[in-house]
Amino acid sequence: MRHGKVKRLCCLILTIALVGSCFMQYTGTIRAADDEPGYDPAASALKYSKDTLEIGASSSYDFGVTIPENQTYYMSFTLRTDGDLYLDYRGVGKVRLYLGQSQYGMIGLVSELWPQGDFGLKDGARITFRSETDKTTLWVNGEKTVENAELKETGLAGVPTVSWSSATSLMTDIKIWVDEPVYGEETGNLLYSGKTVEIGAGSSYDFGVTIPENQTYYMSFTLKTDSDLYLDYRGVDKARLYLGQSQYGMIGLASDLWPQGDFGLKNGAKITFRSDPDKTTLWINGQKVQEDLALSEAASGLAGTPKVSWASAAAQMTDVFIWTLKDGGGEEPPVSDEPQYNEETDQ
Prior knowledge:
Elements (H helix, E strand, L loop, with lengths): L2 H23 L19 E11 L3 E4 L10 E9 L3 E6 L4 E5 L4 E4 L17 E7 L3 E6 L2 E8 L10 E5 L3 E10 L9 E12 L3 E4 L10 E9 L3 E6 L4 E5 L4 E4 L17 E7 L3 E6 L2 E8 L12 E5 L3 E11 L22
Antiparallel strand pairs: 1-11, 2-10, 3-7, 3-11, 4-5, 4-10, 5-6, 7-8, 8-9, 12-22, 13-21, 14-18, 14-22, 15-16, 15-21, 16-17, 18-19, 19-20
């Protein structure tokens, strides 16, 4: 064979080998995954927590949690077993995670995944996933292995359940949570709280709180009314949240939004928002409906002045909380250095 042909043949073989090796090495693993979610007491609503749970051979376990079909949730745990286990996490018997000694499987996707390999179940493997209404992202031992895998059937409620464990399994550090800020004494500076606030028809209500212009704050409440209400939350008449029976409106953004839909004001709807100096994130009934929406130039950099500026009918707000974070979340109000008499140390 002529030298040129041999050289071309070697190059062709090398190319095929390299391409083939690329496909062989790819197992769906996504490298450099330092974004693994974790429960944060300042920004997460905890639905279930348990340090140690033992599940017997040939048995199942119900975590007693049902996440609404329109809501994303997170679950994390470390699993140690000599056998295998099925975890249903969306719908009943619809969307499952199989964890075995030589592979794990994601069942109920548009394209099911069965990555091969021993990822350490005998010694304990760390599992974290984000379950959305239409897709799933999975971390195994801190590494993102599956990202936004599409579900075959969407809009199912989240029902985390161990539906089968072939051998005795030990789950530790289990947490199930949703991404919704909640006030906590250890993490938050409480600025206002009220179990029940009654607002008359055609009236307003001032919560008596002013947040410095450079500071982020949070507010949560459940609102029940037969009509609608305006809540100013940044500046006076600058950044507003309109809550109505058939829509909600975000006014004072770079581009105002008016999403349509009945989200349950007549029976009581849970509202939570994070108000930054230049943007807003909103949750309705535990679902993050808007994230980091930029405020208009006129509203940016203004002090936070949470106030019901108008209620067209009698409205009831319950479990009202306004708070800032002790660590992060913007600069805290300056602390006075004025000396104070201390009877234990001063003469």
